Amino acid sequence: MAERSVRRQLGSIILAFEAFIVFFGTLVAFGLKVADPKLVWGFGLAFSTILILTPGYLGRKGSYWFAWALQITLLVVSFFVPWMLLISIIFVGLFGWSMIAGATIDLAKKAKANLDSVEVIVESKEK
Length: 127
Known about the structure:
This protein is an all-alpha fold and 127 residues long. The chain has four helices and no strands.
């Protein structure tokens, strides 16, 4: 079994937590009546579902761009619910950190693997 990248693992954790945050934000938006209830529930549940399914897609071509698009969508939508913007900023920051830290750790692991596989031969010339 191939080893998953740390970037993918950290990103998956953040996206899964965000799915729950969006669901609870949907409950708050419904309670505050910020829009038509059908619109609130439809968008909130669809967005939560997309967020919970995205970790399975991470690691494929274009998946990280898609995840960043979800982060931007989260920021835009959070303007409709009080205090949700602060929570969104925190989670977007965490997602950004997970992408940077994960990529750094993956590069370090790759460099270490390359270093461990290098064979060093020392020859001495005796006179």
